[in-house]
Amino acid sequence: MTTSHVRLLLLSVAFGALGGAALAQQAPPSGEAQAGGSLNEIVVTALPGNPLSKIKSSVSVSTLKADAIQQSAPSSAADIVRDIPGFRSEASGGEGNANVSVRGLPLASGGAKYVQFQEDGLPLLQYGDIDFATGDQFLRADFNIDRVEAIRGGSSSTAVSDAPGGVINFIDKDGKVAGGDLGVTAGLDYDEQRYDFDYGAPIADGTRFHIGGFYHTGQGPRDIGYDAVSGGQIKFNITHDIEGGFIKFDFKYLDDRSPVFLPVPIALAASGSASNYPGFSANSGVTQTPYLLSDIAINANGQRVTTDVSDGYHSHETAFGGEINKEIGGGWKLDDKLRVSSMGGDFVGPYTQNVGTNSALAGTLGYAGGNFTYANGPQAGQAFTGYAQEIALFNVKLNDVGNYFNDLKVNKTFDQVAGGSASLQAGVFSSRQNIVEDWHWNTYLEEVKSKDAALLNLTSGGQMITAGGLFAYGEPAFGNCCIRYYDVHYTTNAPYLSASWQTDKLNIDGSLRYDIAQASGVYGGATGTSVINVNNTQTLTTPDQKVPVVNTYYPVGYTKGYLSYSFGANYQLDPDLAVFARTSEGGRFNAERLLFGGGVSQGLANQPAIGTTSQNDAVNEVWQTEGGVKYRTGGFSLFLTAFYAVTQETNADFTNHADGVEAEITYRLGDFSFRGGATYTDATIAKALDNPATVGKVPQRQAPWVYQFTPSYKHGPVEVGFNVIGTTDSYTSNANTQVMPGYVEVNMFASYAVTANLKASIAGNNIFNAIGITEVDGANVARSINGETFSGSLKYSF
């Protein structure tokens, strides 16, 4: 069956089902089991006190259960985040490297600077914007997931360290409910096969376990010409009830490879209109090619290293953890969570730097009058005409990004306090985050072609152009900017305190957190004065090339302590209506992105002493105020929040103001259900030390509207629906000179219960094949979401 046939079949089924839902005359359901009852769910993530239901707590929180997650057919953890109101997730990089922000907080660096990804209440990485190591790279959503809880807003300022914008907590099943699943998924119009399993059950009185994992293989959602998807994970936990609590042990092993998708050639006008280059598709074409499978460079020790380009995102993690929760007398309860993780891998991906016609690109590279010939492939040696691109191969070895986390707290509830009850909680969070990376990048010349692009040589008058090796190849083409080595380590110790008081209708809470963060280690780069000969990486007719090596190291050593606070109140006017408000200030300690000119001195003559950093550079601060209403009736629920945030962003030396409104809606009428959300943000640059001309302009990549909604219909064994993700236009930079166009991505799903235990389903991602630009680098380079893909799966539950 062709892709067009699959699309037409799913569209006809879905429209027919939705039309039937509109005609249904069933009465709205009542009771807390329906859609509106979601406000009664107990939340455990990033709260300033004891767990409370959504309608009683003064935080903005969303919950996605496993079945809701599957409706959007996510291909990565960042895809799931796009389905949560308030968050902006640029999920276009594959299994990692997504840029994530929330409620107008700036996307001033890659990754998720102000947001934290968690597994079972502890971070995956202490910092969400580590270069080439982001939390979503080490997070895989599979059958282990029970639900995702997402907190956005100021309450996370004191509940966690270094994530004042929000927390996204992926919570695993624990075997409390006996059962398991087996699943197989295959791409219908792309090459990938995936196998999932999980099982959990009580195994003795008071003891239960859960185990699950997946394995996948193939090329992935884009045709890159070779297998780049390989690996999987396995997770296990066991819980034993003890008097007054429980003890839990958990284990995770991840070893997975998947392709890295970075910016590619695309023609962009300043107004935001986008068009493809001849022979290249921005949402399905790749710069990976079978003609560039290995790369040779020099590591920080001056040793020759060969990298398999197909490694892409190679993420490996071995983690051991556990939790003890126990009453310790006098009404006090202790809870201690611990995880130790060994983490590392590779980040290898080609990035388009420049695009141009044959002679034009040669001129851009400094050789006016130069031309290109095919360096390899079926036309090797022949003259090349057409569009060519200069490729930067991002090649980073993640030697060690492992960490240690411990969160110890005690709490007590006091009855009969001023006509209500009160709770007190005190704790201390400790962590160590390693960042040991070796960057050895190279550049290549490649034809602009969606698949199987050949490499090119640069010639003039029939002769190779060389400058100590071909100018367009090798690490010196970067000006040695990206020959780097990091061996830095960051520790955090954060005592915190929270108190709350509540009656049947009113809940008031306040919390404080004091972070003491310390940086230590060394980092280094190439000055260009030390070089070494290396044979060229490909079968190109060029001499040995000279590449720089890391030969200058600087120490790192700075410490910063900072206080965060959060105060909130929630008043339940009646069982179905509540209002809340909160004000907060939170901090975010800056790690390795301060190095190489980001704020840490390298001891140069016109700078302070080696290893120092200014107080403003060490920590970014975020001030937030929010308030809203929570309402439910029958099968309808509404969570409406107004917010205002001020962010002092030092990586780019500007202060960001943002205000807006966020809405989350769920609705059920008979067999029809709807969930969705929309966020409106009005953001402005209020101060800019690095570029005063940007004051009053809109921060980069901040769209006024971000929205998502999922209507679905379930009747008997059939369920069908749509998942729509959208964003309006934004700007590519703070200068507001180029528009990044908005887009709408439509996904769909359809399933049929063959038996009570066996379900067959089809999922379509981006079924209208939209180009969805998420990142722009100039007028001819950008990154898009993946194009149209369809997958089919079978799932057996027992």
Description:
With 798 residues, this protein is mainly beta. The protein has one domain: Beta Barrel (Maltoporin, Chain A), CATH 2.40.170.20. Helix content is 6%, strand content 55%. The chain has six helices and 48 strands. A hairpin with an 8-residue loop joins strand 22 and strand 23 (383-384). The longest helix is centred in the N-terminal third of the chain and has 21 residues, at 3-23.
The number of helical segments is 6
CATH homologous superfamily (4th level) name: TonB-dependent receptor, beta-barrel domain
Tally of structural domains: 1
Unreliable stretches covering 5 or more consecutive residues: 1-37, 467-471, 529-544, 603-610
**What proportion strand?**
over 45%
Level-2 CATH architecture:
Beta Barrel
Structural class: mainly beta
Total strand segments: 48
* Largest sheet descriptor: 24 strands, antiparallel
| CATH top level class name | Mainly Beta
Shape: globular
The fold-level CATH name is: Maltoporin, Chain A
Query: Gap between N and C termini, in Å?
Result: 31 Å
